[in-house]
Every structure is written in structure tokens, then in C-alpha cells.
Amino acid sequence: MLLDTYGRTATDLRVSLTDRCNLRCTYCMPEEGLQWLNRSDVLSDDEIVRLITIAVTRLGVTEVRFTGGEPLIRPGLVGIIKRCSALEPRPTLSMTTNGIGLRRTASALKTAGLDRINVSLDTLRPAVFAALTRRDRHADVIDGLRAAQEAGLTPVKINSVLMRGMNDDEAPDLLAWAMEHCYELRFIEQMPLDAQHGWARDAMITAEEILCSLRTRFTLTPEGEVARGAAPAERWIVDEGSHRVGVIASVTRPFCRACDRTRLTADGQIRDCLFARDETDLRESLRTGASDEELAELWRRAMWGKKAASGLDGPAFQRPVRPMSAIGG
């Protein structure tokens, strides 16, 4: 098992398939000039599947989420999912995507074995979308969400980041729209993981601000710690009905004590925390003939040293060397 010295067990693996993306979201990366990983440094399909197999069959991982960059631009994506869905024991397979390519791929992803999907959508207004992402692709994301739902990649979840002065007035509209279409909405506090280091704590829309905005139109009832478990999102029941809304408050309400995640970057590095400044290299050992058990032991050691908390809520916090696009969501 992937244990750490604080008694936590990592059962949820986040796998970044690429650091590249077809959007340029202002809270993630600059419009141009970001240096990508060398192609030779990126794990091959076979290498990714081998490491996931080790995680599932030797290390107790039960959930695998594919991330990026943008995972849908990875050429071998469907094949990777198909091979992972054939593992015994079979892990739950999910993906976080910007949704642009979902209209043409949702059905194939479901057939290959993907269970569910999270789609990033920060606004209902096409002009604001273009300003936030520097691309005019709002309609493609809406179409992708519809295709994911029709393919059975449910529950379809939407991830939204609110930016002050751009879309911070949209929280109630986003929730009403998500409920109308039977999507589950989750707001995420902006985190200091942008490549251009533009994040500022005092400019961030906090969880409390988001909840105050939602309560101008909806009644929110806390779902509770038992229902939440190790999930990063605190969830609320909306208007005492069947719909839920979540808030991931990584900055103002850290949830490190229940963290069950381990991360594999596109270039084969293990990260024990999204905000870690150190990594453990599996790629070099994998490519120089290490056995499955030797790779598993490297992974165990990497997770054993996990810190008690990210420190994100403290004044001494130091941001990771890598931006979000190179770490994986």
C-alpha cells in the first residue's frame, strides 16, 4: 500500500498524459512562450499502462483519473483507457478535460471503459470564455458536455474557477444552468499554480464569497464530513432537493488530513502532493530495466515521505517549481 507517516493511504492516482493544451486559460498559462516537455521525456503509452498496472495490482490504487494539460489531445488515449479497464482488480477510471474534443470522442471513451468525466467550464457567456481561455471555443465545450452525458459518462461534473472582475458574478447562474441540465457543479478556488506567477491571495475569489453569492438565490444545506470522505469538494444540498454543489477550497479550507492522492506526471515523476516541490523519478528506473517490484518500492518510498500538509494556507508557502499544466490536475 502507499502509506505515509501520518497514517494516510493513497488509493487515488492522478495521471497526467501531456503538459500541452489547446486553451490558454489566464489562471493557468500565458498566451505564448511556455516551454513544453521534450517528446522523448514523455512516457509512452506502454510505459503509462505499466506504471498504472503496478499502482493497481501492487500498491492498492482503486481510482485512476487522467489529466493534462489536456488529455484529449493525447493520440493513444482511448487505447490507454481500454487497457486500464481490463486490469484486475478493475480501477474506477475518470478524466478531467476542457471538453473541446468530447463531441467526437465521448462514445469511444465510454466504450473503452471510462466511467465518468469532469469538464472545465468557467462561464456561460461566450465572450467571457474567449477572454478567459484566449480561444473562441465555448460552443464546443457545451456540445462536449452534452455528448458526455449522452454517452453515459455520468455523473458529468463541471469544474468552475471564478476570477474577480471577469466571471465572479456568475456563480448562481452557473448553478441554475447545471441543475437544469443535470450536471454536478463544483467551484474551485484559484490556486498558485499558474505558469506566469500571476496568482495573488487577495485577488482570489474565496469559498466563502462563492457560498455567499450562491445563497442569494439558493438554500444550501451542508452534506457533511461523512458523505465527503476523502473527496476534495465540500458539498451542499441545493434547495433541499436532489442536486448538489461542491466547493474545493484548497487555499482557505485545506483538506490535507484526509488526502488519498498520488500523482504521476507525463514525464514519469511521482508527486506526493499537488503543491510538492520535490519529485521521485520513475522514468529513469523504468527505462533502465527496473522490475515491477523495484518500481513499486520507489513509489512506496516517495509516498512515505509525504508532508502533513501543503502549507498553502501559511505565510511561508512556496509555490511548486512546475505549473499546473505540467503537474496534472
Describe this structure in words.
The chain has 329 residues and is α/β, with parallel strands linked by helices. It has one domain (12-185, 257-327): Aldolase class I (TIM Barrel). Helix content is 30%, strand content 16%. It has 11 helices and 12 strands. The protein has helices at residues 45-58, 77-85, 102-112, 126-133, 138-151, 171-180, 207-214, 225-228, 283-287, 292-304, 324-327, and strands at 12-16, 63-67, 92-97, 116-120, 157-160, 184-188, 220-222, 234-238, 244-248, 261-264, 269-271, 280-281. The chain has a 12-stranded mixed β-sheet. α1 links the parallel β1 (12-16) and β2. α3 runs parallel beside α5 (138-151). The longest helix is centred in the N-terminal third of the chain and has 14 residues, at 45-58. It starts with 11 loop residues before the first strand and ends with a helix.
Strand and helix layout:
Elements: E1 12-16, H1 45-58, E2 63-67, H2 77-85, E3 92-97, H3 102-112, E4 116-120, H4 126-133, H5 138-151, E5 157-160, H6 171-180, E6 184-188, H7 207-214, E7 220-222, H8 225-228, E8 234-238, E9 244-248, E10 261-264, E11 269-271, E12 280-281, H9 283-287, H10 292-304, H11 324-327
Parallel strand pairs: 1-2, 1-10, 2-3, 3-4, 4-5, 5-6, 6-9
Antiparallel strand pairs: 7-8, 8-9, 10-11, 11-12
Helix pairs in contact: 1-2, 1-10, 2-3, 3-5
